[in-house]
Every structure is written in structure tokens, then in C-alpha cells.
Amino acid sequence: MSVTRRTFLTAAAAAGVAAGTAGAQEKTYKAVVIGDTKNGGYGHDLHMVFQHRADVTIAALADPDEEGRAKHAAECGAVTTYADWREMLAKEQADIAIVAPRWTPPHKDYVLACAEAGLHGFMEKPLCVDLEEADAMVEAVESRGLKWALAHNFRMTPLVAHVKQLVDDGLLGTIVEVRTRGKEDARAGGEDLVVLGCHLFDMMCYFIGDPLWCMSDITHNGKPATPADVREATEPLGPIVGNRINAMYGFDNGIAGHFSSMYTKDGNGARWALNLYGTKGCITINLNRVAPVIKYLDDSIWHAGARGSAWVDPPGMPEYVIDDPHTQTYIPNITDLMDAIANDREPACSLRHGRRTIEMVQGVWASYVAGCRVALPLADRAHPLKNWSA
Fold first, then answer.
1. DSSP 8-state symbol, 354
2. Is 124 exposed, middle or buried (0-12, 13-18, 19+ CB in 10 A)?
3. Among 20, 65, 91, 145, which is 20 to 30 Å from 169 by CA?
4. Boundaries of CATH 3.40.50.720 in the chain?
5. What is the SS3 assignment for 9?
6. Contact 334, 15 (CB under 8 A)
7. What pLDDT is recorded for position 6?
8. How far apart are CA 279 and CA 171, in angstroms?
9. pLDDT by residue (tens digit) across 28-57?
């Protein structure tokens, strides 16, 4: 059934207010925003994610930058502002925190402090720098029964959910391979792997489960990467290496998953996509738009035009249009988070799912450093490049 934007927003708002609770009007939530204008900002407008929620009030916003603090508080309607986020957590006694900065090094401190204060939360991806941090964050929230969701917005759209159902129902036959490419802009290689790869890995696991192993090859300017090539990304994300990466993951039933990103002078930054290949056809999911662009090829040889086939919309796709990316992008994520809080369940895109994407990123580094295929989950939770370059 086709769903118009108005129908979708109305349904999402209603679900957000009432999901899983009887008389949801009786329960309202107090939220606070952690931002930092000069150190990761507000991600993709994460301070605006509750604008469609009648049951959530933005009580306060913290940002050490005075000008940015005033600007973003006005945008999201924060009642009170703070220069120090720790002071905000201590004084506001909130229910929910938004961790908005893109840059990952402070994420662990933010989440651990919010968990100590007993807050549920929503946060920008990538989750954190390495698996040691990821483990600590997951333990902090789960040991207290808190619900935290991660901003993997593409996987949470009704479009991708519909495709998942089609795949599960056999539209593509048996899945034999999944291929992904990063955005391949100026960040191609290691930074692409961390920043854009996490969306691809989250979606890859959504369709075919958890990876069992990883093997990778990394070069820098055409030569095998060495410890001397390890560097910081253009944004603080932890150490990275390489401007060309090819990685392969093994899944159950012999399914192979691939990630590639290569810097070229003529890279256009628009190949960021996941492609599902099955015995009956294939589906491509391009992420280079506010909402994913999805096409289907009904051909077992995966060759458009060879036998009269062409790329078309998958059957029965719902309509999903985002008119205002500042406020609508994360409606599915937030609706699910609020339902998870109300029903005491794990969010559909939780910190555990975020840790799984970090596992796949770290697996690339670990495989290359070890010079062999590595089993996942990794036994050593420290960042492989930190040890390698020491």
C-alpha cells in the first residue's frame, strides 16, 4: 500500500505519542541535548529529532560555544542552556539525552555520564573510536536497563524495511553476495570506511546477519600501507590508514560481503551503495540522498538489457518523501526508540548494533595488520592501528 508523506508523518507522530502505552498522554519526557559547535557540532541536526513528538520537551542544551549554544537552543526550543554538559546532566534530572556531535572521541564520556544519570538516549554515529569503548558503552546502558538508539537513519526507513521483507519472501531467490562501496569522495579509503561504511555495515548485517570473519587489503598511494601511513582523519575519529581499501566478510551459508573504497582524482562521491545479489535478481540501495534510492533488476544474470530486463522500483514500494531533512530524517528511529522505552525492549538500532559496525571497521584494520583473515568478534578489543603504530 502506498503511504503518502502526510499519512506517514501522522502515523509516526501518533505511534510516537501512544506506542506501547495505555493513556500515553499521562507520560511525558524531558530531554536534554549535548552539542559542541566547534567539536563535532550537532551531526545531522540531531538537536531537532524530537520536533515531531508531543510527548517530549527539550528542557536544556549544552554547548561550550556561546554563539552556537544560543543558535541551536533557539532552533530546538531548549528552555535552558549550559556551557558545561556535565552541569546540565546534574541539574536537569532529565529522562532522555541527545548526543549530537559527529566526532567520536568524546562519545564514550558522554554516554557513560548519561547512563550514570539514568538517561535513555539517541546519538550520532559512528558509535565510538574502538571496541574497548564500545564494550564499555553497551555495558553502561544495558546494566541499568536504559534504551539507547544510534542514528543509522537509512536502515530504519520504511523503504528498507519493505525491501527486507521482499528479500525474506524470496524475491531475489538465494542471496549469494552483498557488495558495498563507500562514498569515495575526498575521504576515500580509511575515513570513508569509518564514517560512511558504518551505514553500509549496519544494513549489510540487517539483511544477512552477523559476519564471522574479515580479510582485507589496504594501500596508500598505490603501495602497501605501513605504520608510517597511519594518520588522523580530517575529523577526529581515531587512527585510520590507507586511501584504498578492499575488505571481504564471511557470513553464514557461505555468503560473501564486500566493502571497497578507493580515492581517485575523478571520484564523484555518488557510488555510496549496497547491492544485494541473488539467484533470481538483484537490488541496489543507493544512499547518496536524504532517503535511499532503491531499484530492482529481475534477472538472474544481473545484466540489465541483456534479456529485456531493466532497473525498476521493487514491487509494492511505499511512498517515502522527506521535505525537511532537519526535522523528518530520524522520525522512524525516534518512534522506535520511544516504543522501546515504553515496552522495555532493545531499540531496532541500538548500541549493540552500533558496536557491530565498529567490529566490522576494526576487523579491516586487524586483518591487514595481522596479514591474514581474522575471526569476528575480535578477541583483542584494542584499536589495531594504535598497537601497530606504537
1. H
2. buried
3. 20
4. 5-150
5. helix
6. no
7. 39
8. 9
9. 999 999 999 999 999 999 999 999 999 999
Cell 548494533: give the residue.
353
10 and 16 in contact (C-beta within 8 Å)?
no
> Domain 158-332+347-388 classified CATH 3.30.360.10?
yes
Q: How much is the pLDDT for 289?
A: 86
Q: Where in the chain is the domain with CATH 3.30.360.10?
A: 158-332+347-388
Neighbour count for residue 214 (Cβ, 10 Å): 26
Question: Which residues share a beta bridge with 374?
Answer: 214
3-state secondary structure of 142: helix
- The C-alpha atoms of residue 254 and residue 176 are separated, in whole angstroms, by 8
Quick: pLDDT tens for 208-232. Answer: 999 999 999 999 999 999 999 999 9
Nearest to 251 by CA among 75, 376, 106: 376
Superfamily of domain 5-150: NAD(P)-binding Rossmann-like Domain (3.40.50.720)
Q: What's the rounded Cα separation, in Å, for the pair 326 and 330? A: 9
Retrieve residue 183's grid coordinates.
Answer: 562514498
Cell 529529532 belongs to 49
Asked if 186 and 262 count as a contact pair (C-beta separation under 8 A), the reply is no
Give the model confidence (pLDDT) of 153-212 as tens digits. 999 999 999 999 999 999 999 999 999 999 999 999 999 999 999 999 999 999 999 999
